[in-house]
Amino acid sequence: MRRTCWCLFTLLTALLVQVPQQAGAQMYVCVDSSGKEQYTNMNSSGSCRPLQNRISITRPPGTGGSYFRRVSTYQPPSRTDASSYDHHIRKSSRRYNVDPFLIKAVIKTESDFDRYALSKKGAQGLMQLMPGTARELNVRNPFNPYENIDGGTRYLKSMLQLFDGDVVLSLAAYNAGPTLVKRLQKVPKNTETRRYIKKVLAYYKDYRGHLPKD
């Protein structure tokens, strides 16, 4: 009797271990317009991606317990994939009269050309629009590359207009918010923002240095 119970226990344990793996392979995580994640077995939109190995057990430093931490298995596109957005970039560049290389440098810094990028603060898509900003820009689907690049370029253009074409202050405002930069009238003493500006300008210089020859 004891042997039979142990066999049943072993079988049930094996089944419980296998079920989440099988279900996980058939599940998707979708992000709605407010930035909230929805879990479903239907790949219903472009904002959905497979839910695979998103859960791992880790042990926080200095503690004896364990907790579940979500980890994304999504791999950002390679450098060569960046050119697939050039059409959208050029179109938005012409529409809002913003240097296409600056737009591309911002995208590279913000999301590394990952159309599904989602920051810890909730910024979404290629140019990392916050949900409130996306709504103000009438970006209905922030994970649609055309909508996001168009909205992000329009927002960048508004920063350039606000700061009279000063690229450095405009980038600072894009990263840290226009209210703070407008009040200070200079780049905030914020390590993140200063590093952000430096990275964008470095990519900008790099992209401009690779202009196609006529």
Structure description:
- The chain is mostly helical.
- It folds into two domains: 25-74, no CATH class; 79-208, Lysozyme.
- The protein is 50% helix and 9% strand.
- Strands 2-1-3 form a three-stranded antiparallel beta sheet. It has a two-stranded antiparallel sheet with strand order 4-5.
- Helix 5 (145-162) crosses helix 6.
- The protein starts with a helix and ends in a 6-residue tail after the last helix.
- Residues 4-26 and 52-80 have low confidence and may be disordered.
Summarize the structure.
The chain has helices spanning 2-26, 86-96, 100-111, 131-136, 145-162, 167-176, 178-184, 191-208; strands spanning 28-31, 37-40, 48-50, 55-58, 67-70. With 214 residues, it is mainly alpha-helical.
- What is the second-level CATH architecture of the largest domain? Orthogonal Bundle
Low-confidence parts lasting 5 or more residues at pLDDT below 50?
4-26, 52-80
| CATH-derived topology of the largest domain | Lysozyme
What is the typical, i.e. mean, pLDDT?
Answer: 76
> DSSP strand (E) fraction?
5-15%
**What does the main sheet amount to?**
3 strands, antiparallel
Which structural class best describes the helix and strand composition? mainly alpha
Number of strands: 5
End-to-end CA span:
85 Å
> What is the number of independent domains?
2
